[in-house]
Specification:
Blueprint: H1 18-35, H2 49-67, H3 74-84, H4 91-102, H5 107-128, E1 138-139, E2 142-143, H6 145-149, H7 151-172, H8 179-193, H9 198-209, H10 218-243, H11 248-275, H12 278-281, H13 287-290, H14 296-300, H15 302-318, H16 325-340
Antiparallel strand pairs: 1-2
Helix pairs in contact: 1-15, 2-5, 3-7, 4-5, 4-10, 4-16, 5-7, 5-10, 8-10, 9-10, 10-11, 11-15, 11-16, 15-16
The structure holds geranylgeranyl diphosphate.
Length: 343
Amino acid sequence: MQAILCAPGAIIARLNPRQKKVNNLRQKTQHLRAAAAPAAAVEASELDFGNYIADKNKAIEQALSDSVPEMYPERLHESMRYSLLAGGKRIRPCLCIAACELMGGTMEVAMPTACALEMIHTMSLIHDDLPSMDNDDFRRGKPTNHKVYGEEMAILAGDALLSHAFEYIGRETPKSVPAERTLRVLVDVGKCVGSEGLVGGQVVDIMSEGADADEVTLETLKYIHAHKTGALLEVSVTSGAILAGAKEEDVERLGKYAQLIGLAFQVVDDILDCTQTSEQLGKTAGKDEAVGKATYPSLVGLEESKKIADDLITEAKELLRDYDPKLAAPLLGLADFIKNRQN
Ligand code: GRG
Protein backbone atom coordinates (compact mmCIF):
# COMPACT_ATOMS: atom_id res chain seq x y z
CA MET A 1 0.00 0.00 0.00
CA GLN A 2 3.02 2.26 0.33
CA ALA A 3 4.05 3.42 -3.16
CA ILE A 4 0.96 5.27 -4.36
CA LEU A 5 -0.44 6.03 -0.97
CA CYS A 6 -0.14 9.59 0.28
CA ALA A 7 -0.98 10.37 3.89
CA PRO A 8 -3.57 13.12 3.76
CA GLY A 9 -1.90 15.40 6.30
CA ALA A 10 -4.74 17.82 6.71
CA ILE A 11 -7.96 16.37 5.40
CA ILE A 12 -9.21 19.62 3.96
CA ALA A 13 -6.96 22.28 2.49
CA ARG A 14 -9.02 25.45 2.61
CA LEU A 15 -8.81 28.20 -0.02
CA ASN A 16 -7.47 25.76 -2.62
CA PRO A 17 -8.84 26.92 -6.02
CA ARG A 18 -10.17 24.20 -8.30
CA GLN A 19 -7.93 25.02 -11.28
CA LYS A 20 -4.83 24.94 -9.13
CA LYS A 21 -5.81 21.48 -8.02
CA VAL A 22 -6.43 20.29 -11.58
CA ASN A 23 -2.97 21.48 -12.62
CA ASN A 24 -1.54 19.93 -9.51
CA LEU A 25 -3.15 16.61 -10.37
CA ARG A 26 -1.86 16.74 -13.93
CA GLN A 27 1.66 17.36 -12.66
CA LYS A 28 1.43 14.68 -10.03
CA THR A 29 0.20 12.05 -12.44
CA GLN A 30 2.73 13.02 -15.12
CA HIS A 31 5.15 10.36 -13.88
CA LEU A 32 2.47 7.73 -14.26
CA ARG A 33 2.00 8.61 -17.89
CA ALA A 34 5.72 8.90 -18.53
CA ALA A 35 6.42 5.56 -16.87
CA ALA A 36 3.60 3.96 -18.75
CA ALA A 37 5.07 4.20 -22.22
CA PRO A 38 6.84 0.88 -22.74
CA ALA A 39 8.55 0.03 -26.00
CA ALA A 40 6.11 -2.80 -26.59
CA ALA A 41 3.00 -3.24 -24.53
CA VAL A 42 2.78 -6.39 -22.41
CA GLU A 43 -0.29 -8.35 -23.45
CA ALA A 44 -2.09 -11.44 -22.21
CA SER A 45 -0.95 -14.08 -24.68
CA GLU A 46 -3.07 -16.92 -25.96
CA LEU A 47 -5.40 -16.95 -22.98
CA ASP A 48 -9.11 -17.16 -23.61
CA PHE A 49 -9.80 -14.81 -20.75
CA GLY A 50 -13.58 -15.21 -20.99
CA ASN A 51 -13.28 -18.97 -20.48
CA TYR A 52 -10.66 -18.57 -17.78
CA ILE A 53 -12.87 -16.22 -15.74
CA ALA A 54 -15.97 -18.36 -16.32
CA ASP A 55 -14.13 -21.46 -15.05
CA LYS A 56 -12.70 -19.70 -12.00
CA ASN A 57 -16.00 -18.01 -11.19
CA LYS A 58 -17.84 -21.32 -11.29
CA ALA A 59 -15.40 -22.79 -8.76
CA ILE A 60 -15.53 -19.63 -6.64
CA GLU A 61 -19.37 -19.56 -6.57
CA GLN A 62 -19.46 -23.17 -5.39
CA ALA A 63 -16.78 -22.59 -2.75
CA LEU A 64 -18.58 -19.46 -1.50
CA SER A 65 -21.85 -21.31 -1.19
CA ASP A 66 -20.12 -24.11 0.76
CA SER A 67 -18.34 -21.59 2.99
CA VAL A 68 -21.54 -20.27 4.61
CA PRO A 69 -24.01 -23.16 5.05
CA GLU A 70 -27.70 -22.67 5.79
CA MET A 71 -27.91 -23.32 9.51
CA TYR A 72 -29.29 -22.03 12.81
CA PRO A 73 -29.93 -19.12 13.33
CA GLU A 74 -31.51 -19.44 9.89
CA ARG A 75 -32.36 -15.78 9.36
CA LEU A 76 -28.76 -14.66 10.04
CA HIS A 77 -27.23 -17.21 7.68
CA GLU A 78 -29.85 -16.45 5.06
CA SER A 79 -28.92 -12.77 5.27
CA MET A 80 -25.19 -13.58 5.00
CA ARG A 81 -25.80 -15.84 2.01
CA TYR A 82 -28.15 -13.33 0.37
CA SER A 83 -25.36 -10.79 -0.11
CA LEU A 84 -22.45 -13.21 -0.47
CA LEU A 85 -24.15 -15.11 -3.29
CA ALA A 86 -25.77 -12.08 -4.96
CA GLY A 87 -23.38 -12.12 -7.90
CA GLY A 88 -20.59 -9.62 -8.22
CA LYS A 89 -17.59 -9.86 -10.46
CA ARG A 90 -15.47 -11.84 -7.95
CA ILE A 91 -12.39 -9.81 -8.87
CA ARG A 92 -10.68 -10.23 -5.49
CA PRO A 93 -10.91 -14.06 -5.38
CA CYS A 94 -9.77 -14.22 -9.03
CA LEU A 95 -6.76 -12.02 -8.27
CA CYS A 96 -5.82 -14.20 -5.29
CA ILE A 97 -6.05 -17.43 -7.28
CA ALA A 98 -4.25 -15.99 -10.33
CA ALA A 99 -1.37 -14.67 -8.20
CA CYS A 100 -1.07 -18.00 -6.38
CA GLU A 101 -0.99 -19.91 -9.67
CA LEU A 102 1.54 -17.49 -11.19
CA MET A 103 3.84 -18.19 -8.23
CA GLY A 104 3.52 -21.95 -8.62
CA GLY A 105 0.63 -22.62 -6.22
CA THR A 106 -2.77 -24.14 -6.91
CA MET A 107 -6.36 -22.92 -6.85
CA GLU A 108 -7.05 -25.26 -3.89
CA VAL A 109 -4.35 -23.58 -1.82
CA ALA A 110 -5.74 -20.10 -2.52
CA MET A 111 -9.48 -20.85 -2.40
CA PRO A 112 -10.14 -20.43 1.37
CA THR A 113 -8.40 -17.05 1.34
CA ALA A 114 -10.12 -16.14 -1.95
CA CYS A 115 -13.51 -16.84 -0.31
CA ALA A 116 -12.52 -14.92 2.83
CA LEU A 117 -11.61 -11.87 0.73
CA GLU A 118 -15.03 -11.98 -0.93
CA MET A 119 -16.68 -12.30 2.52
CA ILE A 120 -14.84 -9.17 3.67
CA HIS A 121 -15.65 -7.30 0.45
CA THR A 122 -19.31 -8.30 0.78
CA MET A 123 -19.55 -7.23 4.41
CA SER A 124 -18.02 -3.86 3.50
CA LEU A 125 -20.71 -3.41 0.84
CA ILE A 126 -23.49 -4.39 3.29
CA HIS A 127 -22.25 -1.85 5.84
CA ASP A 128 -21.54 0.80 3.19
CA ASP A 129 -25.16 0.59 2.00
CA LEU A 130 -26.64 1.12 5.50
CA PRO A 131 -28.76 4.24 6.13
CA SER A 132 -26.06 5.58 8.46
CA MET A 133 -23.48 5.36 5.64
CA ASP A 134 -24.39 5.60 1.93
CA ASN A 135 -28.06 4.72 2.41
CA ASP A 136 -28.43 2.73 -0.80
CA ASP A 137 -31.41 0.65 -1.85
CA PHE A 138 -29.77 -1.46 -4.57
CA ARG A 139 -26.57 -3.44 -4.84
CA ARG A 140 -25.55 -6.02 -7.41
CA GLY A 141 -28.94 -5.46 -9.04
CA LYS A 142 -30.89 -6.50 -5.95
CA PRO A 143 -32.39 -4.72 -2.93
CA THR A 144 -29.66 -4.08 -0.35
CA ASN A 145 -29.32 -6.38 2.65
CA HIS A 146 -30.96 -4.00 5.16
CA LYS A 147 -33.89 -3.45 2.78
CA VAL A 148 -34.61 -7.17 2.87
CA TYR A 149 -33.54 -8.19 6.39
CA GLY A 150 -33.66 -4.92 8.34
CA GLU A 151 -30.83 -2.84 9.71
CA GLU A 152 -30.02 -4.91 12.79
CA MET A 153 -29.67 -8.10 10.78
CA ALA A 154 -27.61 -6.36 8.05
CA ILE A 155 -25.12 -5.06 10.64
CA LEU A 156 -24.87 -8.47 12.28
CA ALA A 157 -24.62 -10.37 8.98
CA GLY A 158 -21.69 -8.08 8.08
CA ASP A 159 -20.05 -8.69 11.46
CA ALA A 160 -20.51 -12.44 11.11
CA LEU A 161 -19.04 -12.47 7.59
CA LEU A 162 -16.03 -10.49 8.80
CA SER A 163 -15.20 -12.84 11.67
CA HIS A 164 -15.97 -15.91 9.56
CA ALA A 165 -13.42 -14.74 6.99
CA PHE A 166 -10.53 -15.01 9.42
CA GLU A 167 -11.74 -18.28 10.88
CA TYR A 168 -12.07 -19.63 7.36
CA ILE A 169 -8.49 -18.81 6.32
CA GLY A 170 -7.11 -20.33 9.52
CA ARG A 171 -9.23 -23.47 9.42
CA GLU A 172 -9.58 -24.24 5.71
CA THR A 173 -6.18 -23.42 4.21
CA PRO A 174 -4.71 -26.83 3.29
CA LYS A 175 -2.34 -28.23 5.90
CA SER A 176 0.29 -28.59 3.18
CA VAL A 177 0.78 -24.81 3.41
CA PRO A 178 3.38 -23.95 6.09
CA ALA A 179 1.67 -22.33 9.09
CA GLU A 180 3.85 -19.21 8.92
CA ARG A 181 2.50 -18.42 5.45
CA THR A 182 -1.09 -18.70 6.65
CA LEU A 183 -0.28 -16.59 9.71
CA ARG A 184 1.25 -13.88 7.51
CA VAL A 185 -1.85 -13.85 5.32
CA LEU A 186 -4.07 -13.49 8.42
CA VAL A 187 -1.98 -10.55 9.66
CA ASP A 188 -1.90 -8.84 6.24
CA VAL A 189 -5.64 -9.26 5.68
CA GLY A 190 -6.35 -7.96 9.21
CA LYS A 191 -4.22 -4.89 8.58
CA CYS A 192 -5.84 -4.11 5.23
CA VAL A 193 -9.33 -4.25 6.77
CA GLY A 194 -8.75 -2.15 9.89
CA SER A 195 -7.92 1.47 10.70
CA GLU A 196 -4.91 1.40 8.35
CA GLY A 197 -6.99 -0.03 5.50
CA LEU A 198 -10.64 -0.19 4.51
CA VAL A 199 -12.07 1.27 7.71
CA GLY A 200 -9.52 4.13 7.66
CA GLY A 201 -10.39 4.88 4.01
CA GLN A 202 -14.11 4.85 4.76
CA VAL A 203 -13.67 7.22 7.70
CA VAL A 204 -11.69 9.76 5.65
CA ASP A 205 -14.29 9.43 2.86
CA ILE A 206 -17.12 10.18 5.30
CA MET A 207 -15.24 13.10 6.82
CA SER A 208 -14.54 14.54 3.36
CA GLU A 209 -18.14 14.24 2.23
CA GLY A 210 -19.40 17.06 4.41
CA ALA A 211 -16.87 19.39 2.83
CA ASP A 212 -17.14 21.32 -0.40
CA ALA A 213 -15.78 19.04 -3.16
CA ASP A 214 -13.44 21.85 -4.23
CA GLU A 215 -11.76 21.69 -0.87
CA VAL A 216 -10.80 18.00 -0.91
CA THR A 217 -7.15 17.66 -1.89
CA LEU A 218 -5.78 15.16 -4.36
CA GLU A 219 -3.78 13.61 -1.51
CA THR A 220 -6.99 13.00 0.37
CA LEU A 221 -8.67 11.47 -2.68
CA LYS A 222 -5.70 9.17 -3.20
CA TYR A 223 -5.72 8.16 0.46
CA ILE A 224 -9.41 7.29 0.27
CA HIS A 225 -8.98 5.26 -2.93
CA ALA A 226 -5.82 3.45 -1.77
CA HIS A 227 -7.41 2.44 1.54
CA LYS A 228 -11.10 1.99 0.75
CA THR A 229 -10.56 0.07 -2.47
CA GLY A 230 -6.86 -0.50 -3.11
CA ALA A 231 -5.94 -2.20 0.15
CA LEU A 232 -8.21 -5.22 -0.33
CA LEU A 233 -7.21 -5.60 -3.99
CA GLU A 234 -3.55 -5.45 -3.00
CA VAL A 235 -3.83 -8.06 -0.28
CA SER A 236 -5.84 -10.26 -2.67
CA VAL A 237 -2.79 -10.44 -4.92
CA THR A 238 -0.06 -10.59 -2.27
CA SER A 239 -1.85 -13.22 -0.16
CA GLY A 240 -2.15 -15.50 -3.19
CA ALA A 241 1.58 -15.09 -3.83
CA ILE A 242 2.49 -15.65 -0.15
CA LEU A 243 0.42 -18.85 0.05
CA ALA A 244 2.30 -20.17 -2.97
CA GLY A 245 5.62 -19.49 -1.23
CA ALA A 246 6.68 -16.65 -3.54
CA LYS A 247 10.05 -14.95 -3.01
CA GLU A 248 9.91 -11.59 -1.22
CA GLU A 249 10.87 -9.67 -4.37
CA ASP A 250 7.94 -11.26 -6.23
CA VAL A 251 5.50 -10.46 -3.41
CA GLU A 252 6.73 -6.86 -3.58
CA ARG A 253 6.47 -6.63 -7.36
CA LEU A 254 2.99 -8.13 -7.39
CA GLY A 255 2.03 -5.75 -4.59
CA LYS A 256 3.04 -2.82 -6.83
CA TYR A 257 1.03 -4.27 -9.72
CA ALA A 258 -1.95 -4.50 -7.36
CA GLN A 259 -1.56 -0.90 -6.13
CA LEU A 260 -1.68 0.33 -9.72
CA ILE A 261 -4.71 -1.73 -10.72
CA GLY A 262 -6.31 -0.75 -7.40
CA LEU A 263 -6.05 2.95 -8.20
CA ALA A 264 -7.18 2.31 -11.79
CA PHE A 265 -10.14 0.35 -10.40
CA GLN A 266 -11.31 3.33 -8.41
CA VAL A 267 -10.71 5.83 -11.25
CA VAL A 268 -12.85 3.57 -13.46
CA ASP A 269 -15.44 3.35 -10.68
CA ASP A 270 -15.62 7.16 -10.61
CA ILE A 271 -16.00 7.21 -14.42
CA LEU A 272 -18.73 4.56 -14.41
CA ASP A 273 -20.67 6.38 -11.71
CA CYS A 274 -21.14 9.36 -14.03
CA THR A 275 -21.42 7.54 -17.39
CA GLN A 276 -23.55 4.43 -16.72
CA THR A 277 -27.18 4.00 -15.73
CA SER A 278 -28.38 2.46 -12.45
CA GLU A 279 -29.56 -0.59 -14.43
CA GLN A 280 -26.10 -1.06 -15.95
CA LEU A 281 -24.38 -0.64 -12.57
CA GLY A 282 -26.84 -2.63 -10.48
CA LYS A 283 -26.69 0.20 -7.92
CA THR A 284 -27.65 3.86 -7.86
CA ALA A 285 -25.74 5.74 -10.58
CA GLY A 286 -24.71 9.40 -10.36
CA LYS A 287 -24.40 9.34 -6.59
CA ASP A 288 -20.98 10.97 -6.46
CA GLU A 289 -22.23 14.12 -8.17
CA ALA A 290 -25.48 14.09 -6.21
CA VAL A 291 -23.63 14.21 -2.90
CA GLY A 292 -20.93 16.54 -4.24
CA LYS A 293 -18.14 14.00 -3.89
CA ALA A 294 -14.66 14.79 -5.24
CA THR A 295 -13.81 12.23 -7.93
CA TYR A 296 -11.28 11.93 -10.73
CA PRO A 297 -13.81 13.10 -13.36
CA SER A 298 -14.85 16.03 -11.15
CA LEU A 299 -11.21 17.05 -10.66
CA VAL A 300 -9.63 16.44 -14.06
CA GLY A 301 -12.53 15.72 -16.42
CA LEU A 302 -13.70 12.53 -18.05
CA GLU A 303 -11.12 12.23 -20.84
CA GLU A 304 -8.15 12.85 -18.56
CA SER A 305 -9.56 10.32 -16.09
CA LYS A 306 -9.75 7.68 -18.84
CA LYS A 307 -6.16 8.43 -19.78
CA ILE A 308 -5.02 8.11 -16.18
CA ALA A 309 -6.80 4.72 -15.87
CA ASP A 310 -5.23 3.53 -19.15
CA ASP A 311 -1.76 4.59 -18.05
CA LEU A 312 -2.07 2.94 -14.64
CA ILE A 313 -3.11 -0.34 -16.26
CA THR A 314 -0.29 -0.18 -18.79
CA GLU A 315 2.21 0.42 -16.01
CA ALA A 316 0.76 -2.42 -13.91
CA LYS A 317 1.06 -4.84 -16.85
CA GLU A 318 4.62 -3.70 -17.45
CA LEU A 319 5.55 -5.02 -14.00
CA LEU A 320 4.65 -8.53 -15.17
CA ARG A 321 6.95 -8.38 -18.16
CA ASP A 322 9.59 -10.70 -16.68
CA TYR A 323 7.21 -13.57 -15.94
CA ASP A 324 6.33 -16.41 -18.30
CA PRO A 325 3.62 -14.76 -20.48
CA LYS A 326 1.42 -17.85 -20.30
CA LEU A 327 1.48 -17.89 -16.49
CA ALA A 328 1.09 -14.13 -16.24
CA ALA A 329 -1.79 -14.04 -18.73
CA PRO A 330 -4.58 -14.18 -16.07
CA LEU A 331 -3.18 -11.21 -14.13
CA LEU A 332 -2.65 -9.33 -17.41
CA GLY A 333 -6.22 -10.12 -18.42
CA LEU A 334 -7.57 -9.07 -15.02
CA ALA A 335 -5.80 -5.71 -15.37
CA ASP A 336 -7.53 -5.15 -18.74
CA PHE A 337 -10.82 -6.37 -17.30
CA ILE A 338 -10.60 -3.73 -14.54
CA LYS A 339 -10.01 -1.02 -17.16
CA ASN A 340 -12.74 -2.13 -19.57
CA ARG A 341 -15.47 -3.22 -17.15
CA GLN A 342 -18.92 -1.69 -17.57
CA ASN A 343 -20.14 -2.17 -13.99
C1 GRG B 1 -14.29 -3.79 6.49
C2 GRG B 1 -14.64 -3.81 8.98
C3 GRG B 1 -14.98 -3.24 7.67
C4 GRG B 1 -15.88 -2.25 7.62
C5 GRG B 1 -16.37 -1.68 6.37
C6 GRG B 1 -18.22 0.34 4.99
C7 GRG B 1 -16.76 0.21 5.00
C8 GRG B 1 -16.10 -0.21 6.26
C9 GRG B 1 -16.01 0.42 3.90
C10 GRG B 1 -16.57 0.73 2.58
C11 GRG B 1 -15.76 0.06 1.55
C12 GRG B 1 -16.31 0.20 0.18
C13 GRG B 1 -17.77 0.05 -0.04
C14 GRG B 1 -15.48 0.41 -0.83
C15 GRG B 1 -15.90 0.50 -2.24
C16 GRG B 1 -15.17 -0.57 -2.97
C17 GRG B 1 -15.75 -0.78 -4.32
C18 GRG B 1 -15.27 0.05 -5.43
C19 GRG B 1 -16.68 -1.71 -4.49
C20 GRG B 1 -17.18 -2.20 -5.77
O1 GRG B 1 -16.43 -3.36 -6.05
P1 GRG B 1 -16.78 -4.30 -7.27
O2 GRG B 1 -16.98 -3.45 -8.50
O3 GRG B 1 -18.18 -4.88 -6.82
O4 GRG B 1 -15.74 -5.37 -7.35
P2 GRG B 1 -18.82 -6.32 -7.11
O5 GRG B 1 -20.27 -6.14 -6.78
O6 GRG B 1 -18.59 -6.68 -8.54
O7 GRG B 1 -18.17 -7.29 -6.17
